[in-house]
Design brief:
The complex is a heterodimer of chains A (243) and B (160). Chain A is 36% helix and 26% strand. By secondary structure, chain A is α/β, with parallel strands linked by helices. Chain A is globular, with a radius of gyration of 19 Å. Classes of the chains: A alpha/beta (243), B mainly alpha (160).
Chain lengths: 243, 160
């Protein structure tokens, strides 16, 4: 269980996270939704201890440290691979540092996405770089796979492929926390949605709960964000009246 | 083989050869400059206390023992090697920020179970540059000492 308790983080005067508390049991695919600057990336970076924060984040009751950090992996749109290295060199490095690294999963995914094994990452297209970033996160052998907007730049078919592969390969004890804007696209793949706005959790619901209420994720998110459907038509109306 | 061994001590995918070449060039030029300064200082120090005869033999005045420059007093130019140590420190900073170039590989390095890996890969190269520099300084000092004792007659040799 990954437990986040009363986590706050500020950048200067801007409060990026405000007293956030949420927990993630094993075996879930969680969508972490929020607009730009809502605090999604800050939350993921806090979990990974890439930034300092106030509060507590524990994994199976223990603070995240070098003793259990291998249970967390990370894929980010900023890319955390080494551009001058080839995929095979990455595999060797990961194997050296992450004993649970899955060669089998790495090879299958490399083959599935048809990525070249012996070219440096810097020569890859943006889409291929994104794919590779996610492949490494999935192959590390982590229990919690944190994915932060890693598909910005990939086409819809590619993303669909990825979601299907994800569902097919995940083990029971693996949890994916998927931070994304693409709510409609992932609504069929996730089991739970956590909504974040201005550094606060404003919604947390499982897709099962929504189904039981006859609701759907997109409507739930729109309600949580007080989305006004008439906003566009009203604005257009006002604009046309002015002319 | 050597390259493979060294790769483990530098950031992943980092080309450390320019750094080694630059260190070697700095050491060569600074060594040449230091030796020239040492030799010039020695000549300058000996000039007032030597007499030159027609046959070219240089004899130091017997009363001039305190006027002959000591070995250590001729080593001032060794300060130039500080440039190499400054370079070593700057490369450590560069190697750290290398992890922000074209990606954020710093995220990977910071979440490794072996936390020292990042620092090992950023600092080892600087330690190597410093060791090379210290070795060159030691060698050069030995050469200077040999030069000093071969020029200054034994009874006038003073270290400090």
């Amino acid at each position: 269980m990954l437990e986040i308790k009363n986590v706050s983080k500020s950048y200067g005067t801007k409060q990026a996270l405000s007293d956030v508390s949420v927990s993630f049991p094993r075996g879930e695919i969680v969508g972490l939704f929020g607009e730009n600057g809502a605090g999604k990336t800050t939350l993921l970076k806090s979990i990974l201890r890439l930034i300092k924060f106030q509060g507590s984040i524990t994994l199976d009751g223990e603070e995240i440290s070098c003793n259990n950090i291998e249970k967390l992996s990370f894929a980010t749109a900023e890319h955390s691979f080494i551009p001058n290295l080839t995929p095979s060199a990455h595999r060797d490095f990961y194997k050296e540092h992450f004993p649970s690294f899955s060669d089998k999963r790495f090879n299958s995914l490399m083959e599935f996405f048809s990525l070249p094994d012996n070219k440096p990452l810097r020569s890859f297209s943006l889409g291929q770089k994104n794919q590779f970033e996610v492949i490494m996160a999935l192959s590390q052998g982590a229990d919690y796979i944190l994915i932060d907007e890693a598909f910005a730049g990939n086409d819809i078919f590619n993303r669909e492929d990825f979601y299907k592969v994800l569902l097919g390969i995940l083990r029971e004890n693996e949890t994916v926390i998927l931070s994304t804007h693409l709510i409609e696209e992932v609504s069929d793949f996730i089991g739970r949605a956590v909504l974040i706005r201005s550094g606060e959790i404003i919604g947390d619901v499982t897709t099962l709960e929504l189904m039981e209420k006859g609701d759907n994720l997109v409507s739930y998110v729109k309600r949580a964000y007080n989305y006004r459907a008439d906003r566009v038509s009203k604005a257009l109306g006002e604009l046309s009246e002015g002319e | 083989m050597m390259k493979k061994k060294l790769e483990k001590y530098y950031p992943l995918g980092y080309d450390f050869r320019p750094e080694i070449i630059l260190t070697a060039l700095m050491c060569i030029f600074i060594s040449a400059w230091v030796f020239l300064m040492f030799r010039a200082g020695l000549n300058l120090g000996l000039e007032p206390v030597t007499q030159e005869y027609a046959d070219g033999v240089r004899i130091i005045e017997e009363t001039a023992v305190n006027k002959v420059p000591t070995f250590v007093s001729l080593l001032g130019a060794f300060e130039m090697f500080a440039l190499v140590f400054i370079f070593a420190a700057l490369t450590a900073i560069y190697r750290y920020f290398y992890h922000y170039q074209h990606s954020k590989s710093i995220y990977l390095m910071k979440r490794l179970p072996r936390r020292s890996e990042l620092y090992k890969r950023c600092l080892s190269g600087s330690a190597l540059i410093s060791l090379i520099c210290l070795a060159v300084m030691t060698g050069l000092m030995a050469v200077c000492f040999i030069e000093y004792v071969s020029i200054v007659p034994e009874e006038f040799v003073r270290i400090f």
